[in-house]
Amino acid sequence: MHEVVTPPGAAVAPSRRSGLSRLTVVVGALVLLGLLLLASLALGSKPLAPAQVWHALVAPDGGEASTIVHDLRVPRTLLGLVVGAALAVAGVLLQALTRNPLAEPRILGVSAGASLGVVTAIAAFGVTTLTGYVWFGILGAMLAGVLVFGIASRTREGASPVTLALIGAALDASFGAVTIGLLTVDSYTFEEYRFWVVGGLTGRGAAVPAQVAPFILVGLLLAAMVARGLDALALGDDVARGLGNRVGLIRIGGGAAAVLLTGAGVAAAGPIAFVGLAVPHLARALVGADQRWTLAVSVLLGPALLLGADIVGRLITPGEVPAGIITALLGAPLLAFLVRRARVVTA
Amino acid sequence: MSAPTAPTTSGGDPTATGTSKPVQRGAVRLRGTDPALLPGRLLLRAGRIRLLVRRRSILVAVILLVLLAGAMVLSLSLGTPYVAPVDVLHSLRNLGAPDGTGTPYDLVVNRLRLPRVVLAVAVGAAFGIAGTLIQSVARNPLASPDVIGITQGAGLVATVALTTGASAAILAPSALAGGLLAAAAVFVLGARHGLAAQRFVLAGVAVAIALRAVTEVVMLSADPIDGQRAQIWLVGTLAGKGWTEARWIALTLVVLLPALLWAGWALHSSALDDDTARGLGLRPTARRVGLAGVGVMVAAMVTAQVGAVDFVALVAPQVARRLVRAERPPLLCAALVGALLVVLADLVGRRLFAPTQLPAGVLTAAIGGPYLLFLLVRGRRRNL
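Above: the input entities. Below: the structure tokens describing the complete assembly.
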């Protein structure tokens, strides 16, 4: 049985919500993201003044500030930008496709699939460059995505939140078992993997953002193309078809986009949790249920959240706390809240 | 329900004051049917104690015992050096004899391999029991300690302990505490509509995901050596463990034995729906929380000893239920299936890539994950 999960605020007239027009929200999100990008370049173990950052960007002089900004903070910030956008948009897509408020790359086991792909690449094929990882990450994400959707469509309850979450848990465990099996047998792989999987933006190398950007761009374009159709899907397949949408195409396009984005995002920064869960909900609370606006806001808020987590992680302890742990700590209470509020199919 | 004239509290409110209820509690008797006459049942009488057993359960239990004994002997004989099963049995006869009096294999069999095999049996049986209790209470085959976050709670605390260089002595107690805390969180989050609701499982899954995410990051941000140790612990392995851990698990089961015996009986009545149970004078909510509490304690204790051997608690009760063809998971058979699973998982893990050992938990997860998916696709969650 299918249930349409009404996102928060969907019942409210979409045009005027809490006095903020959607455009205001988008502009606000843009400003916030801009500020965080600047903060990400300026803050860290050696704080720099905005003027120094600006100087380093436009006229690098090879000095200390310039080196820090160029070699460390710019790659890190760009990575946060692309990965945050990828995970947030993947979350929007998965939530819309499964009609399920809890859908998120990590919860559905798609991230676990990507992780397994990366570990297989290291252990079995000796791949050590990110360009190699990405493909394996995407393959793994694809495998997991196909499994999730395939199994969800075969269960009696369709894609109820519980069923989906459990399918994700099962996949997570199965993939995790194979992953850990590979890691146990091979300590070299554990070292490589450890470096990659911490789920953060540090030490990824300056070339990484550019390497994954094409995949993520394609994913975002696909997402933009299916955005209108996602709104129709929320009304149920029959209605969507009646409105002249090609449901199968929308599903495949949206699914492919989600898999591309997750695979590339996870391959680049490790399985960062909850960005894909938190941002879409936040976006919908701000702009209502229209998927195109939700996507537009998520693309901005995803990087904002990830960069914010990364900056917090830099500042709270002398050693750095990876962004992944900050997002996990932020996401856990949110997940609890969603569970309490979710309408669950009563068996 | 006839309304009593005296103002009594409603039976459904567990917070009601402990006044003795006018209803007499005791054994459920079905009038007009002599239980001994039910087909496929045996009535065992010992004085006033009467025990009704299904013939099929006995048969299944005996077969499982034989299989388990076989698996244990196999696990004792395989490895380097290989010890023929006959010699294994000889060595076992010499158990406890002073050193140097027995066969040359005594050391390998009794000292090196037996502790680990016995531990495997204890771990599997305990997980089987814990899983049965929690699944029966939630009336949901998916509500097993490793799905609803109890194992993950123990895992998180243990990972923190392992990666911060805490002493080994506090590992087990802290993991135990972590498991109990996680269970408490799930209860608070999910038990608003009774433990049988889907929300309970969903809350558990959510707690499990959150805890696992945090654990992973803690583990991987740590020193590499600690990280790998934590990783192996998290998967659950019996390598390098033996009597000490087995003793703790056995002790837990013995201490909780009265509770388990009560549970075996209570499982029958918790299968009734709440109104019926109340009508018979039972207190369903209190009983559920009690049963689940015992299950949680057992699961947390085992996890504390050997790490998170995933999915045994999920799979064992369900396999046992299908073997016995019962509506509910049978306690004893579930324990036997669990023991058999873990002994085999440990054996395969030891020998598959020898000399490298795979943690037993890798194998149980590799089997259990697909099995969970199979359960979901079958989607028979009503008839537990």
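Note for the figure: The mean pLDDT of chain A is 79.
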